[in-house]
Amino acid sequence: MTKTDKQASPTAEATQKPGFFQRLDNAAFGVIYGAIMVLSILMAAGDTPENPLETAAVLFGSVLAITLAKAFAEVMSHALAVREAITRQKWRAAWRHSYPTLAVANLPSLFFVAAAFGWISTDLAVYLAQSLCVALLVLLGARVGRVIEGTVISTLLGGVVAGGLGVALAVMKLVIH
């Protein structure tokens, strides 16, 4: 592969350019996991949550608990697998891998806090939270299509497939409630 080929390839783009896309690529697992988790928790919250402040607390608290449990499980299972001591660096590495999941819950939780103060309606908070999560899934799905295949079609298909999952979860909320 020539230097020109490396520069033109989507994979080379992902490894050569620091900045937004590199950070997004590094956080992709957590962002995808967090977006699906937020959509799932909102599905369980009911049609229009009666107490938006409680919904904010439950949403953020649930994502926090699941994120910490995931980090804990990663550290513990890795220690068993490689028979190594658990160090502060291992905890930090697990947290760095897990915090994007929690970060996804921040804005949706704030939407519900805004609804609790009457700045927006609870229905709008649900809509904004779902829209944010679907948008994140579309963005990351498109990014995967772009990095893997590098074509417009694969970029669009990646966005549609990943976004479709988010839309399906949002629609399930409407159907269930």
Protein topology:
Elements: H1 3-8, H2 10-16, H3 20-44, H4 52-82, H5 88-116, H6 122-148, H7 152-176
Name the descriptors.
mainly alpha
Please sum up the structure shown.
The chain is mainly alpha-helical. The chain has helices at about 5-10, 10-15, 20-45, 50-80, 90-115, 120-150, 150-175. It has one domain (about 25-175).
**Structural class, please?**
mainly alpha
Q: How many structural domains are formed by the residues? A: 1
Give the SSE order as H and E letters: HHHHHHH
The radius of gyration is: 19 Å
Figure out the total of helices: 7
Distance between the termini: 55 Å
Major β-sheet profile: none
Q: Average pLDDT across residues?
A: 82
- Report the strand count: 0
